[in-house]
Amino acid sequence: MPSENDTKKPAASEKKTATAVKMASKQQEISVTEFFEKNKQILGFDSRSKSLLMGIKEAVDNSLDACEEAAILPDVDVTIDRLNDEDYHIVIEDNGPGIVHKMMPNVFGRLLYGSRFHALRQSRGQQGIGISATVMYGNITTGKPAHVESKIEGEDEVAWGMDIVIDTKANRPIVTNDKAFTWEGKEHGTRIAYTIKGRYITGKQSIFEYLRDTAIVNPHAQIVFRDPEGKRFTFERATDIMPPRPKEIKPHPEGMEIGDLMKYASNSAQKTMNTFLKNDFSRITDRLAKEILAKAKVKEDKKPADLTREEAIAILEAIKTAKIMAPPTDCLSPIGDHLIKKGLMHVLDGLRPEYYATPVTRSPKAVNGNPFVVEAGIVYGGDIPSDGQVQILRFANRVPLLYQQGACAITKAISEMDWRRYGLEQRGGKGIPYGPAIILVHVASTKVPFTSEGKEAVAGFPELQSEIGLALRLCARNLKSHLNKMERKKKTHAKFEIVQEILPDMAQKAADHLGKPVPNLDRTITKIMNVVWVEPSVEKKGKNLRVIKYTVYNYTNTKRTLRLHAQVPRESLNLTLYSNPFFLDINDEGKANWEIPDIEPSMHKELMFELSGDMADTFDADDIYFSGLNPVIVMGAELLPGDWGIKGMEIVESDDDFVNEDEEEETEVEELDDE
Amino acid sequence: MPSENDTKKPAASEKKTATAVKMASKQQEISVTEFFEKNKQILGFDSRSKSLLMGIKEAVDNSLDACEEAAILPDVDVTIDRLNDEDYHIVIEDNGPGIVHKMMPNVFGRLLYGSRFHALRQSRGQQGIGISATVMYGNITTGKPAHVESKIEGEDEVAWGMDIVIDTKANRPIVTNDKAFTWEGKEHGTRIAYTIKGRYITGKQSIFEYLRDTAIVNPHAQIVFRDPEGKRFTFERATDIMPPRPKEIKPHPEGMEIGDLMKYASNSAQKTMNTFLKNDFSRITDRLAKEILAKAKVKEDKKPADLTREEAIAILEAIKTAKIMAPPTDCLSPIGDHLIKKGLMHVLDGLRPEYYATPVTRSPKAVNGNPFVVEAGIVYGGDIPSDGQVQILRFANRVPLLYQQGACAITKAISEMDWRRYGLEQRGGKGIPYGPAIILVHVASTKVPFTSEGKEAVAGFPELQSEIGLALRLCARNLKSHLNKMERKKKTHAKFEIVQEILPDMAQKAADHLGKPVPNLDRTITKIMNVVWVEPSVEKKGKNLRVIKYTVYNYTNTKRTLRLHAQVPRESLNLTLYSNPFFLDINDEGKANWEIPDIEPSMHKELMFELSGDMADTFDADDIYFSGLNPVIVMGAELLPGDWGIKGMEIVESDDDFVNEDEEEETEVEELDDE
To answer: Which domains does chain B carry?
Structure first.
């Protein structure tokens, strides 16, 4: 290698050689800790207010994960004290299973260290970065160590506490004051206390908002929060039922890359390719393994470690054409319709919307071998402010996402949809729509593809993006059909009122003119209208009581019997439902059925019941279905759809010229499904 | 530690103890390579089309960095071949200084390894991740190794080539076929060839767009691109002058955290606190070091390694109140006004805009010890489509940012500004504005705070965000004052035309009526108008020739002499400027001065010159200034501002009631500066 003293070469080339050599001398390893120390924004520690939130988020997410892993109903306490201008002291304590003494330093004091990274199962923390990063930023900004304590279950076990500082050059914990002590309070659990520079804010993107939204989608958790002014907020546990614990699964072969397959093969404990495919992947049966290997021309008893690149390519091709079942869903824990509605309600904070669109939970898909599920919900109208952009609530694996909205696949999916077709304002059919609506989207996956280690936004993988789009469209279609219904109703109502007002008026004038008595017009009106009219009404009685009334008018020439159907929130039911004479039955989902018999021409009958509790408002009285009559003569209710699933309920065939107006959109959504 | 066989405890607690122990057994280190393998979206390798772009971007950015480091005018060749459906073979070759043989494996085959991470100096690649990640995704998606070759300068040097695969478990390169060979073609340089799964797209967010935008802001580079169809595009070098090489600096004390200070102190080679502050930081003089230490009550001869936390806090407090110069700018390489205009012009692709707002380059600030500079430019109106959102061009350290627009501090700054005040449409004064405009923003820093390792968006640090906002406001104010000028001109023009049309008309009618001859109205019009009128016009002569004409009408009672001033693009000048009889002089910035003497009442004179070349269109004829007359009688030109900086040019004092209408906004911007 030439040195700078090599005098044979011209000056210019000497200089250039020097560059390569000079650069070589600067080439060096960058410690991952140093990398994040200098790029703290990547972990979400950019502004002071965000840093304060990030630390708490990482700790609370870990607490919830640990409790769920041990099937413990989580109790999490968050306490913030302001020491001075920018220094805050934070304590987060849980009742989780605790952390084994010797693992504590690495869990809290080493980046890229954890238990959930390699597990294919829905959890909040997966990177092994968050809590150590919090400890590191506490260290960097205040120079103080973090103090962690943990007690694992068992009477004989003592609790351990220690101070931790991270050596950023080596990415290793430096532990001091490692001591056993007697744990007081909860039976077991983990407590982390640290000092960090921050700024405490309220309102949007605040710690309060994060904890509230966390409580909404984790109703099995109780969260107690003491803010820097000493105010205590308790987010009560809403249910004692743990969500089903997500099961760990094997990778799904869908969307696997050749490098993944070759790595799995070379690391496999299996002796043959057949058993490798069968046992190391989910959803590959013996029959499928045989089929794939035959198609790829790979011997069944070949050792996986001997797999060549060409064979791997052939196997991937064979997998593409094989019919493999969708990934299992028990590795995931979706929020569910009910909680989505409830969540939206909480966010409304007492405001009364016009309509809750039925939340949509899509069936699972996979991206890069990781199953995922998308859920969406929309609430519309009423008291929701209508002058700004719609509010977007984003969740990933039951964690609220408060920052980086613009970077998120959820926002992108919302922006790329033409909401004008669904009744919202949107310039040019692109961008976040305007109007009185709140849109909630939850992405649950064994590995949520976040755009950065800060876990603030979901990356726009095409498969994921398109699933979010579909969930939104289905939900929006729901909204649109409500808005259509309202529009139709308004029109029919207008016609109805005209007939009822003008006819008697005309009759009156004619009678006056002729000097004759005013004739009874009921039958005339009936003849003109020729409808069975269902008129819903909701009366508010106190904060949490609603009186629901359906009046059924028979404006036809013959006696009519009508069945009504509605899905009511089960927990809001009270005796009035069961005691109503028209009541037939109700199933577990809250699908209720009534029969209103023998309404004479020009007469009406009333169906009435009450709903109570805080879910009462999620019931949409306009969401009423009928059966037993030809749809052309029924107004104010929709024909019961075929999938209502009630045994023995006889559905009248619809006329040929009766067209479901949602049909067209349905087709569009189905087409999108195939994209 | 209790085992699962410990029978003394109840079943429940046994299970819970088991959880902590079970979890402990799963705790493990996560290799950084494995982390990114499973989170490829963080590096930008999510969709196939984006992956293809990312790899090329990382390689080209490295080539440009290396060439600049060695002061070589860059020649970069990019070749893409499509092997089959999704497999692409990519070759990127440069004429850079090359890479020393023994460093090649680590540079291309190890994540978090590089030469620029620790250097405080503007460069494109800093993380030591990008190119190794590209090699890794080539490996993973196609199973093929990357092939790299390099030849360093020097006749005696042989070139070396090798195949590289990354061991993702160990984050180490696995090298095969390491061979010396004879380099052909360029004198020295580096060539990387790899196969990767991708999708080749054209148009928005394409490789072509990235290379074009790169060429625009790196006019000293020549880039040759061969697309998968064999089409060759050459982005010619526009200048042989290298941008000044950014100098490496020491950290600036502004915004330093206590952890940083203590780390610097403990790693310092300096013997005393005084020399430590003076020599390890930029902008700390001996006087300042003494002042800071005195204020913090730390002895000057204390050993830096002995600095306590309390002393560090005191020093940081003292630094806050000390008057430390802004960071040096020679570590940065801004694009500059001229290239910003040129860049905007290229993007317009032949469309003719109405107005180029003068680009703004802010003075440097620091965030976390890293100096940064923000530049902004706006082009408006004319042929630019006016029905959609404005187009945003984002650059960081001379690299175009094509993805993650929604996540970027630049977009956020644009969205949070009320553009309605500056003549663009924007609902509610928030969000990306609509209208015929293109907005360019460049952030240059010794360390650009990207939101993720994919380097697609700039994080929203408050200091940075506010600087971007200020640059945009200044630029927009410029636009607004142009729009105001146009509006005023239109109005005055209308008045002018009325006087010129109606008066003669009235005179004609009066004369007809009285049977007398029509009087000469010139003096009457002059009396009514009492202005000196400057009327600019631009005539297009062929693709690149513009004839600029200023007609100066004297509608006052006395003979007038007027000076005109305009800034013209120097490279567009031709002899017509110098040969014009009214021409006085022109300076290096293109600020030209004319004097139009002795215009008699009711007479006019014409100033005419030509501009040629592709920058001719960036000249705004309406941007014309005058001096030598009282501003209340001049229409169609603005009073020459005080900072025009022309020696010996006599400026007439403005009347007391003459108010600069930009003054109010100026104040607002200044106030923002103090935020």
So the answer is: 1-28 (no CATH), 33-235 (3.30.565.10), 258-321 (1.10.8.50), 358-481 (3.30.230.10), 520-672 (2.60.40.1170)
